[in-house]
Amino acid sequence: MYPWRTVIGIKRRSEQPVFLQIANIVIGEIHSGRLAPGQKLPGTRTLSQLLSLNRKTVVEAIDELSSQGWVESYPKKGTFVSAKLPKVEYKRLPGKPIRPHRANGLMKVNDQPCLEPLHLDLRNKKLIDDGVPDVRLAPLNSLFKHHRPLLSRKVFTHQLTYNDVEGDPGLRSTLTSYLQATRGIHSTSSNIFITRGSQMGIYLTIATLVKKGDTCITSFPGYQIVDSIIAHVGGEIENVRVDESGLVTADIENLCKRKRIKLIYVTPHHHYPTTVTLSPARRVELLQLAIRYNFYILEDDYDYDFHYDNNPVLPLASLNTSGHVIYIGSFSKCLAPVVRVGYFVARPEIVNAANKLRRVIDRQGDPLLERSLSEFIKTGEMQRHLKKTVKIYRQRRDLFCRLLGEYVGDHVRFSKPEGGMSVWVTFKKRGILKTLPAKLAREGYLLETDNIFISKFNAVRMGFASMTSRETVEFMSVLKKVLEIRS
User: Fold this and answer.
1) So where are the chain's domains?
2) What is the DSSP string of 306-358?
3) What is the pLDDT of residues 472-486, one digit of tens each?
């Protein structure tokens, strides 16, 4: 007799129903040839007794097998493996046996040497990020409450199928009014492209505009991902300095006199990673240089909304009458990283070119989330959330900077940022920062940083927005402790 009890091993804790487990095992036995076409199966009563299962479960399994055509049942005769199935016979292929490939003999992978992988191991560790919002404050219930009404309206059923590559028309329309009211940016829906976060917007615009050999300007220190993107598409990179007023425009002008510049990337509020704000005078100078030397300005205003000491300076894009500025924003920074919705504002021909490029990597975004976000903005909930979080983050910035000075002031230098969600911390002695991440890891903290900041500037960017007062005190105590430990 076939060893049914041994062959059919039921996993009680599996998420798969028991009857499907039985059916799938029987299918496997047929496929392997151990159950041959025409072979009789035991009756459901007998099989249920062998497996110690309810007979109804076994009946469901047989019905499933029958519906798929694996078995055939005949009244008063029983259930048999379908005679229509071919008999499984295994034969050797003619010719010499195939030798296994050695690992080094396989075709090489295009490993993208200009890019870096990212792996965050947060097991049993608290993340000290480089400036992200506190997700515990994110009004996700308010945002997602707009989902259900959309689904209940028949007019919105088309949201469940393929939609606009450039983003939900409702959100693009809402953004034209929102950007005008909050940033002084004049645009129409044809100027706006919705992306999955600002980083997609950066990639699409650079890949659309920059060809092999084109020269682009970024800052150093700066957002290294942008340098990687430029290198990835074949562009050449020139770095300029950053001081207390932001990008040094005199350096930019000197480069423009020597080379033809295609694009410059800038984070005006607040410069990544140093957190300084690009001064109004330099904004005007930069825009004049773009017009004079005919290059694009990629303005990444990722944390425009978080300015604490005074009103934020209007973006370069608000002065953009010549079409040289591409403005990038994101809701991931003001709500939560999980809300993967960003956008860029550019000339229609750039939007159209980005449409073509996006289609080969990501057909569209999330139309329901985008429309919900549109409703979230129109009801005023976005502005109420920002007003609340700006107040909270200002308090957290003040506490973080005060404790940073009190606890480890002998070891570091820093300036209280006018806005943003992080502090640029420079260490006074060389060598301390190299061992700091490992020391913090032993205390249960993961310091998210770029190694180039450590090696070139002896500095690190520390986020304060995502920590409560108690969490800030705890971290500062640990930071003081590990800095006082001699290596």
Assistant:
1) 4-81, 126-132+384-483, 156-379
2) -B-SSPPPPPGGGG-SSS-EEEEEESTTTT-TTS--EEEE--HHHHHHHHHHH
3) 999 999 999 999 876
